[in-house]
C-alpha cells in the first residue's frame, strides 16, 4: 500500500462519538496550552524590540511603543561578553556552527554505520556490543567530564608533538575540535540506537539482493541503506543538532574565552555583574541563540512523517 | 555435466542440523523445485546455493566448479526473492541495471541490456517508475528482469508467487513456465505449494526436516511416492492411506481391507508393489489417489485391475469440474474424485471402484513404499 492510499483510506476525523461540545472542549484546551507555551517567546520578542527605559519602566506584556532593532544589532555585534570582549555574540555564534555541523554529521554517519553493521552483518556478540553502546545513553554528562579532560589533554599533547614534527597539529588541542570529539563520542550511543532500530525493520532481502548484484559492504551502505533512511536521518539530525547546540556543560568546561560556543557566551552576557542589566539585549541574544534549533525543526519537521519505504517490499 | 551439483551438503546452526546430507544434481535447462512444509530447510538450501549462507560440510558445484567459498556475486547465479527486494530508491531501469553497474559495465551496454530484458518481460513502459508505483505482478516481473539481465547459469526463485493473489499467481506461474521454455534457463525454485511444484518442475525434490525424501520427475513423485510423507504431501486432495493386511485367498496373495461389518475388501497386489517384499499376515498401508477411486461409469477404460465395493456416501463436495465424495472404508475416510454430475446422494449407498493400476503399498513401520 502506498502512502497516498493510507492517506485517502484514513476514516473521517469526525468520529461518531465526538459531539460539538467535546470538540469545543478539546480545541479550547489545545488553544489554551498553545498560548501558555507561546507567551514566554512572545514576551521575549516584544522585550527585544523595546528601548531599555520602556523595559524597566513599563509592563512586561505591553506592546513596544517605540519599535527599535538596536538591541538586536547590539547583541549581535557590540555587546560586552565577559570582561574584555565587546564584539557581541556573533563570533561565538559561528563557534557553535563550526562545532555543531561536523559533530552532527560525523555522529549521524557513524551511528548509521553502526546500525548497519549491528543489524545486517551481525557478528557473534553484537547484542553485547549494542548493549554497551546503549549504556552511553544513560551515563550522566557530569560523570564523563574528568576522564574526558584527561583524554583531551593527552590528545592536546599529541597535537603539540605533531606540530613540532610536521608543523601542523592536525587540529588536536584546538577547542572546537575537542568539542566535536566530545559530542561525537557522547552522541554515538543515541545515533546508534536510532539507526539500529530503524535498520532492524529494514528488509534484509534488499541487502541480500545487493550482495548478489555484487555490491560491496560500503556500496550497499551508500546505495541501498542510506537513500532509504531519510526519516531516521532527519530524526537523528534534529536530535543531535538540538542537543549539541544547546549544550552548556561541555562547552563551558572544554572551551574558554574566544573559543566558547554560543551558549557559554550567552551566559556570560546575561550574568554580567557590571553596569545596568540590558534586558532587551539579553532577550535578543537569547532568541538568536535559540533560532538555529527552531529553524531546523521548521525546515526538517515536515520530512519527519514521510514514509519513503512505502511499497518497497510486498504488495 | 550437470549445471548444478550438490553433494552431501550439511548445514548446522549451532547444534541444530537443518540440512542433513543433501545430494541433488540438475542438468542444464532443468527446472528443479524444492518443496516441503515450513521449516523443512528448503529456503536454507536455496540460500546456501546462492552463497547467502555458508555450509557446514559437503560441496556445491555450479557449472562444474566448486563454489562453496565464493561470494554470491561470483557464483554465476541470480535470485528472485519472495518480497521481490526491489531497491525502493531506484527506478525500474536502475534496479535491473544495478548489478551491471556494480560490475562496471559501461552505461550504453547496460541500457541496451535493460531495454532488451524489458522487451522480453513487456515492462518497457515501466522503466522510469519507482517500485512503489507498481502493482504486485509488475514488481514480480521487474524482479525477474533483474535476474534475467545477468544471464546466469542458475536462477534461484524463493517462493516468488506467495505474495500474489490467487488469480495473478496462476498467471505468473504460466509466465514463469513460458520463460523457462523459451529461454531454456536452469532454475531452482522453492515453494510450499505442491501444485506449483507439479506444474513447473522437470524435477522435484521433496524435503522434510532437512532430509531429502525423494527426488524425481513430477510423475514419479506423484505416482510412485517414495514414502508416506511424499504421498500425503503431494496431491490435492491428499492420497487415501488405508490400513490393510497381506493374506492368501483363492490361492493368490491379496491385500485385505477390513470393514466395520466384519467383511473385507480383497484387493490384488498392485502392480507397483514388489511382491517379493510381502509376507503373509504382514500389515501394509494401501495408498490410492482420489482420482483412482471412482465408479464404473467414469472408470478409466484402460484400467487393467479394478475392484468394486459398496459404501455409504458421507460427504459430497462439488468443486465445479469434479465432485469430491467422502466415504468410509476400513475405518478411514476415503475421498473419491468423481465427475461433476456423478449420481451420488448423501447417506445413500453407492458402488465405487478402486483402480489398482494407480495404487501403491507402504510399509507401516518404515513408511517406505514397498
From TrEMBL, chain A:
One BP term from GO: transmembrane transport
Pfam families, per the entry: BPD_transp_1
Entry's localization field: Cell membrane
Gene Ontology annotations for the cellular component aspect, listed alphabetically: plasma membrane
Keywords from the named record: Membrane, Transmembrane, Transmembrane helix, Transport
Keyword Transport in annotation: yes
ABC transmembrane type-1 domain residues: 93-300
Organism: Bradyrhizobium manausense
InterPro entries: MetI-like, MetI-like_sf
Superkingdom of origin organism: Bacteria
Annotated TM spans: 24-46, 99-118, 130-155, 175-199, 220-241, 283-305
Name of the protein in question: Sugar ABC transporter permease
Assigned protein family: Belongs to the binding-protein-dependent transport system permease family.
Bilayer topology: Multi-pass membrane protein
Automatic annotation (TrEMBL), chain B:
SMART domains associated with the record: AAA
UniProt keyword list: ATP-binding, Nucleotide-binding, Transport
Taxonomy, superkingdom: Bacteria
Record's subcellular location: Cell inner membrane
InterPro entries: AAA+_ATPase (IPR003593), ABC_transporter-like_ATP-bd (IPR003439), ABC_transporter-like_CS (IPR017871), ABC_transpr_MalK-like (IPR015855), ABC_transpr_MalK/UgpC-like (IPR047641), Mo/tungstate-bd_C_term_dom (IPR008995), NA-bd_OB-fold (IPR012340), OB_MalK-like (IPR040582)
Segments forming domain ABC transporter: 4-234
Topology within the bilayer: Peripheral membrane protein
Any one of the GO CC terms: ATP-binding cassette (ABC) transporter complex, substrate-binding subunit-containing
One annotated GO molecular function: ATP hydrolysis activity
GO biological process, one term: carbohydrate transport
Family from the record: Belongs to the ABC transporter superfamily.
Biological role: Involved in beta-(1-->2)glucan export. Transmembrane domains (TMD) form a pore in the inner membrane and the ATP-binding domain (NBD) is responsible for energy generation.
Name the record gives this protein: Sugar ABC transporter ATP-binding protein
Source organism: Bradyrhizobium manausense
